[in-house]
Structures are given as C-alpha cells and as structure tokens.
Design goal:
This protein is mostly helical and 165 residues long. Helix content is 53%, strand content 0%. It starts with a helix and ends with a helix. The chain is elongated, with a radius of gyration of 25 Å. The relative contact order is 0.13. Helix 6 packs across helix 9.
Amino acid sequence: MTDGYGILKRQKATGEYHPGAERRQLNLPAMNGVAQSILFLILLSFAPQSVVAQEEHHKHEHHGHPEYAKLVNPVAMTEASIAEGGRLYEKHCITCHGMGGKGDVGPSLTGSGRIHGNTDGEMFHVVTDGVAGTVMKGFKKELAEEKRWYLVNYIKSLGAKAGNK
C-alpha cells in the first residue's frame, strides 16, 4: 500500500503531477477565501486570551512580586553555591544575559534594580517560571529546585561584584 506522499512523489517524477494534487490525494477539502477566513476566526477564538491579558498586565518595567519576595533561600550563599550557580549560568543563561550577566538579548543582571525585584524569592520566581511575553523561559522542569537557588546565589553575586547588594 502506498501513502499519498509516495503517489505524489511518483507523479512528480513522471511528470503526471498537477497543482492541487496534494489536496486531492490527502482528501483535504478545497477552501475558498471565505472558508479560510472562517477557519482563521474559529482558530483565533481558541487562542489563549490570558497570554494577551498577561502581557498587558505584566509591564516590563521595574516592579516587585510581593508574593514571592517572602520566599527564603534555603541554600547558603557560599563560594561553592556561587560556583555551582556560575556553572549553571554558563550552561543555561549566558546566551541571553551575556558574560558576567551584563546583558545582551536579556537584561543586565548586575544592577541593583532588577526588573522583577531584588529579593531571593523574586529572582527564584523568574528563574522558575520565566517571564510571559519575553524569551525568558522558566527552568522549573529542567532544573531541580536546589539548582535554581544556586542560580539565584550566582545572580546575587553579580550584583555584589558591581557594588550592589
């Protein structure tokens, strides 16, 4: 038994191919402009409206996240935890935030005025859940909780190196 793709490939090779053959071979209905517009509107109605609302609500200017500011970092800020955070940063963050966290695609992480807050908990929230409407993805599934706290310690150390606490 030959699938539709095999038939089309053979038709193209032998010169028997006709425009629209894919639709006929795959039993797809022909769609005029009105049908395409209706399909587009139906699909658009299923688009997550929360993404649009979240983007409007979550402005990318300095603000805090009080609900996360209360989180306490369970990993002591030691040379070892900062070094481990640095290794994780090089693997997962340097592409966007640049060498030493000075910024590139993503914002600088060296200043005291981080966009989403300066507390350990607020930084942990961003590392964990990412930032809607940006390329900053969350690492909740990719990195264990302890490793995300190592990243927080490393990010804090960047601010300390720049003379900020």
